[in-house]
Specification:
The complex is a heterodimer. Chain A is built from 16 helices and 17 strands. Chain A is α/β, with parallel strands linked by helices. In chain A, helix 4 links the parallel strand 4 and strand 5. Chain A is elongated, with a radius of gyration of 44 Å. By secondary structure, chain B is of the alpha/beta class. Chain B folds into two domains: 124 residues, Response regulator (Rossmann fold, 3-Layer(aba) Sandwich); 96 residues, Winged helix-like DNA-binding domain superfamily/Winged helix DNA-binding domain (Arc Repressor Mutant, subunit A, Orthogonal Bundle), CATH 1.10.10. Helices cover 40% and strands 21% of the residues of chain B. Chain B has eight helices and twelve strands. In chain B, strand 1, helix 1 and strand 2 form a beta-alpha-beta unit. Chain B is globular and about 50 Å long. The chains are: A alpha/beta, B alpha/beta.
């Protein structure tokens, strides 16, 4: 997964940007993403301290932070402002903090913005953060009662006073019984906005004030007539009913929002997992999903070759318990430990076996009714499918690799047994003949047989060396030892080594006597030797072999050219493969010479090119350092 | 020192190679002691008079290098190392830890005898306090006068070239490793010259044997070092 993901956190007017900044920073760390904080303010509004502090904090934490002032705070205007930022990253995440919907269900700016963004910018992923106060509080009596918010009490008190004042004004013109209706309206408002507890308090307060202020004789407590008890009883009922309804509706809408967020997280996870190509990607996708849906953190443990669970993170485990994880991996049952933070260990079930363990840490405990547990299990299952796919892919790759290795090994064995058998046949035949028929063998034949044995033994030795060299060079067992080498020395060393093969050829060298080559002389001499040996073997006696050297900028070119029959047309590049011979008849070659040359060239960072000019031409291209070698030695004798 | 009196200790674990060596050396007129492991070799070295050691690097009980270092603590008798293709670095290390020469397996009998001759001759010279004048065909090197002449005419050398030549001449006919050359010509910690060593040798070679291609006197032993071949 590319790290180009970008988080844009947008704090809306009236929200404390510090809450959002903190959450955005967490998320950026979880997703390994870059992060920008935008604080929207209405034009003309005063700078408030919280905004300045949030911006400073964000900048101190290393995230980009900006204050944006808007004339009109509509969803379309905000989205237009955000567009340049959201267009920047391929995978942008817009983070908003949720606002309550307005009075009588009017959609808040945050929800309008979210809807608009989902419609217009489909590449942007939305992440709506809950307000801190309402974050995953278990729903109980406290919520119905409206909690302990001071603001709600003020609302209750003010409504009570306003109702009493209105009643006081109406007192002259209406029956006292009718003024009670004012309180009824007040109860409705308090029940709607401040919860059941305040509604009850309001009713009790209104009984007291009604008796004191609105019922003659004024400013004395008189015993109320039974009809008032009835009225206040109804008021109490209405207040409770309304607050219960409101709380129910808000619970439903919370539930819906949570469900939408879970669905979103599930979709995002699927989307991320499709692109996952390593267990690290899977872990990152899981983290993102867990963070955005349940405000938690995840860790993945996968078994190694010996079946021991290892964290996917190189840094090691953060909170998962290896013992618990091992137990979960063995039994397949999930285990939950602790309580805020709660740590869960979930098994990841593949088709045949368990693939690993997902450990999750959540800040708040799981609620039985909310489907959170199901969601987490769904995460684990989705990730398990992908892990299984990755495992199968890895198996496919390795089996293809094994097949290739097997093929090379078989070719190698076949070639070795063939190439060793013929010289061995000569050696065994000659020596046994020398031992068993010594009386009938003439001194001349004896000499010839012995020379044959020596020659064939040397051939076996060469073949063995070639195999060994190729294996070592290709296997990286040969360290390059680079130095400045006089080119004519390299040429003459290779020519000397191939003296016997080239005795019948006319060899010419074209190179500046002072020319230097930056190379490993041992390997380059071997390369030249192999090429010259080929030339000597394939070009007929008397033909010319030319050695050339040209220096270019930051590179050098060595050319060996003969005027023999050349490479088989169209198969020039094949000749660099192992055990490929130009013609089956040509004996003596191992089919490894040019393969070694190619390996040597590659080790130097250069390349070998085979072509047919007037005969075979082998060109070695080697990169050279920029600095010129120091060769002068001006010291006096 | 007559050849009949020369004793060779062969330390080699492979019975076929050992028997081949013993055969070839006996036929060459040497007296031969043989050992199949480092421990036995050390014992024999301690209680026999040995003129030259032939030591295989891959021994079953101990590293051949260790055996050489052990020997070098008490004897300056020449040591020739037998090494396989895969033991290149050990070979150089053996030379640096005191071995005089090396033979790469497989080797011919002529090569074996040539190396033994050089080693024995050099040992004899060391015991005679060394020669100061060396001859390379028409070229004469006088180590005490610090002069090099061809047909009586002086060859001018730079300081570095002379130091290189003097060191190679001191170990005439034997290989001098790259590390030895760098240490003794430029001093310790001068490893950057390693990249130019071939160039210096090339310049020196052009002064000593300008027409010889391939060189016959100042030889490059690729991957090991250099050897100056002088006349007897």
């Amino acid at each position: 997964m590319p790290a180009s993901r970008q988080i844009i956190a947008c704090a809306l007017p009236g929200q404390d940007p510090r809450v959002l900044a903190e959450r955005a920073l967490d998320k950026a760390r979880a997703l390994d993403a870059s992060c920008t904080l935008l604080v929207l303010t209405r034009a003309g509004s005063d700078d408030d301290a919280a905004t300045a502090q949030a911006l400073a904090q964000a900048r101190a934490a290393g995230i980009e932070a900006q204050q944006v002032t808007l004339e009109r705070m509509t969803a379309a205007a905000v989205l237009d402002t955000l567009r340049p930022w959201l267009g920047r990253g391929q995978r942008a995440v817009l983070m908003l903090q949720r606002q309550h919907d307005g009075f009588l269900g009017a959609a808040s700016l945050s929800s309008r913005l979210a809807t608009l963004c989902a419609d217009e910018l489909s590449h942007v992923r939305l992440h709506v953060v809950r307000a801190t106060a309402e974050r995953r509080h278990p729903r109980g009596l406290g919520t119905y009662m409206g909690g302990a918010s001071l603001k709600a009490w003020w609302l209750t008190l003010l409504t009570l006073l306003a109702c009493t004042l209105a009643g006081e004004l109406m007192r002259e013109h209406f029956e006292p019984a009718n003024t009670v209706m004012i309180y009824m309206a007040g109860t409705t408002l308090v029940g709607l906005r401040a919860g059941m507890g305040r509604a009850i308090a309001f009713v009790l307060g209104s009984v007291l004030l009604y008796d004191l202020v609105l019922l003659p004789p004024y400013w004395t407590i008189v015993k109320l007539r039974p009809q008032y008890y009835f009225t206040f009883g109804v008021m109490l009922g209405v207040g409770c009913l309304i607050s219960w309804l409101v709380s129910n509706v808000s619970a439903k809408s919370d539930e819906l929002a949570a469900r939408a967020q879970r669905a979103q997280a599930r979709n995002d996870l699927s989307y991320d997992l499709v692109r996952a190509s390593t267990p690290q990607d899977v872990q990152l996708a899981l983290r993102s999903a867990i963070d955005s849906s349940l405000d938690g953190w995840g860790e993945l443990l996968l078994p190694d070759a010996e079946g021991r669970l290892r964290p996917v993170d190189v840094a090691g485990l953060q909170f998962a318990d290896p013992g618990t994880a091992a137990r979960v991996f063995a039994t397949g049952d999930h285990v939950a430990t602790g309580d805020s933070p709660i740590v869960l260990h979930l098994p990841m079930q593949g088709t045949h076996e368990r693939l690993g363990v997902l450990a999750i840490r959540l800040k708040a405990p799981l609620r039985d009714d909310s489907g959170d547990a199901n969601l987490l299990r769904a995460f684990a299952d989705k990730a398990a499918v992908v892990l299984q796919r990755l495992q199968l892919e890895a198996m496919n790759t390795s089996s293809a690799l094994e097949a290739e290795t097997e093929r090379v090994r078989n070719t190698l064995l076949a070639a070795i047994s063939h190439d060793f058998r013929s010289p061995m046949t000569t050696i065994v035949g000659s020596v046994s003949s020398l031992l068993e028929q010594r009386d009938v063998i003439s001194p001349a034949l004896r000499e010839r047989l012995l020379r044959g044995v020596l020659g064939e033994a040397r051939r076996v030795h060469t073949l063995m060396n070639n195999l060994l060299d190729l294996t070592r060079i290709e296997g990286g067992a040969v360290p390059l030892s680079l130095e400045w080498c006089p080119v004519d020395e390299l040429f003459s060393a290779a020519l000397t080594a191939q003296g016997a093969t080239l005795a019948e050829h006319r060899v010419s060298m074209a190179c500046d006597p002072d020319a230097l080559l930056w190379c490993d002389p041992r390997l380059i001499e071997q390369l030249l030797g192999n090429v010259l040996e080929n030339a000597g073997r394939h070009a007929p006696a008397g033909s010319r072999i030319r050695l050339g050297f040209t220096a270019e900028t930051a590179a050098a070119r060595l050319v060996v050219q003969d005027d023999g029959p050349g490479f088989p047309p169209g198969r020039e590049q094949d000749m660099m493969k192992k055990f490929t011979r130009g013609s089956q008849q040509s004996s003596g070659g191992t089919g490894l010479g040019l393969a070694i040359c190619a390996a040597v060239a590659k080790l130097h960072g250069g390349r070998l090119e085979l072509s047919n000019q007037s005969g075979a031409q082998v060109m070695l291209w080697l990169p050279q350092p920029d600095c010129a070698p120091i060769t002068d030695d001006d010291e006096a004798p | 020192m007559s050849r009949d009196a020369c004793t060779v200790l062969v330390v080699e674990d492979d019975p076929a190679i050992r028997s081949m060596l013993v055969g070839a050396l006996t036929a060459g007129g040497y007296q031969v002691h043989e050992a199949d492991c480092a421990a036995k070799g050390e014992t024999l070295a301690g209680n026999r008079r040995i003129d030259v050691f032939l030591i295989d690097l891959g021994l079953p009980d101990r590293d051949g290098l260790e055996l050489i270092r052990g020997l070098r603590r008490w004897t300056q008798r020449p040591v020739i190392v037998l090494s396989g293709r895969t033991q290149e670095s050990e070979k150089v290390e053996a030379l640096d830890s005191g071995a005089d020469d090396y033979l790469i397996k497989p080797f011919g009998v002529a090569e074996l005898h040539a190396r033994l001759r050089v080693a024995l001759r050099h040992a004899a010279q060391t015991s005679q306090a060394g020669r100061t004048s060396l001859r390379l065909g028409a070229v004469v090197i006088d180590l005490s006068a610090k002069t090099v002449t061809r047909d009586g005419e002086a060859i001018r050398l730079t300081g570095t070239q002379w130091r290189l030549l003097a060191l190679l001449a001191k170990h005439a006919n034997r290989v001098v490793t790259t590390r030895q050359l760098l240490q003794e010509v430029w001093g310790p910690g001068q490893s950057e010259h390693a990249h130019y060593l071939r160039v210096y040798i090339h310049q020196l070679r052009r002064r000593l044997e300008p027409d010889a291609n391939p060189p016959t006197r100042l030889l490059t032993e690729t991957g090991v070092g250099y050897r100056l071949v002088v006349d007897d």
